[in-house]
Amino acid sequence: MRHVLCAVMLLAPAIAMAAGGDHGGDAAGDDRSIILLLTLLGIIAAAYLMAHFVVDRLQKRFLFVSGAEYILLGLLLGPQTNVLSDLASLAPVIAFLAGWIGILYGMELDFRRLIGSADHSTRLAVIDTLVTGGGVTVAAWAGFTYGMAFDSREAWLAAGAMGCAAAAGSSSAVDLLIDRYRSAAGGILSLLRRTARLGDVIAILGFGVLISIFHTGDTLTSQTPAVSDWILFTVALGVVLGGLFAAFLADDPSENSRFLALVGIIAFASGAAFFLRLSELTVNLILGSVLINTRPGKQVYRTLMSTATPVALVLLVFAGVRFEPVDLVDGLFVSGGYILARVLFKFLGGWLASSGTSVRRDIARGMMAQGHVAVAIALSFRLYYDGEAVDLAYAAILASVILSELVAPRLLKGLLVDAGDVSQDVAFALEVR
User: Fold this and answer.
1) What is the pTM of this model?
2) b/e string for 331-361 if b means 16 or more Cβ within 10 A?
3) What are the pLDDT digits (tens) for 276-295?
């Protein structure tokens, strides 16, 4: 149950901040925070037990990755059932979770390790994310503008979020295959894992630029800052906080103390980004990239990695909570077009990135997974924007994540079989280990 306790400790400060912010710290606010915390404790415990004893074994046996059960749980607990109905109070919690995902992926930017890497993961990640993200953005804008008659700004905003989420990948399928076929842990699987993680970093950076372009909310300045100013604020906030907190963590040898310090760090950074209406994902990504390249970076990385599972679990639940029903025909049109466009541009990006290298031209078969970063982008997007196009974009991203996570392991296995890295005939004991 360590992951359950970890998730509750992650959420407690954010929930307290939400209740205190909405109710001025009075007794009613304290009661609401306690009720919310206990509700989430029950949710997390039930979801974790289901995942640990049922879903994990099914995933290894039938070779699929699924987060749909957690999203469904969120749907059942959303405003329609009045269990988690106060969406305004949940906003700081969602910002906190998005910030945690950001710092997790910021830890991938260990420059010493990246410079020492001799594979083609950086090339694959850059070309794939640019082609997929850019292509899907343009296609989605065209669909919203000409197919559904949304105004240009709303169309570009929703399309941009869909493009950033489409560019985001996931290493979930790779991790599942590594766990099942341990002898194939190197080679293509290692390349694809690094590619997915770097692609997620680029997608988060792109999302930070999108939030700066379409910045919303009041400012405390006499003149509205330009887009370049918001981008500079995002980068500066992450760098400054990363440097300050690196010094703070340097003399802390205890893992438990580091964990508690990180909770406070992420709550502060996410709160600052939320107040300025900037991307919590991007600010914490930059903060994490600073931390990993300092002396305590490796210890911080190990502490953060132990929290990845509970954070992802709660993130998926909140993704279901924040879902808003959309018109069925419009939803199918946008979701279907989005999924098709992502697949097509993934293959195009993979083919372009592998040209002139030893990498297989069909490498995109192993890059179809779409996971927690895409969900975090969608949730963070909903923090600041609303409207019909936003609801449709959000629904399309969740649909794409669910479908891609289901089929990605099978597609990756087929790629490994064709490449000769694994055999179709594996021992049954390995399949269910």
Assistant:
1) 0.87
2) bebbbebbbebbbebbbbbbbbbbeeeebbe
3) 899 999 999 999 999 888 88
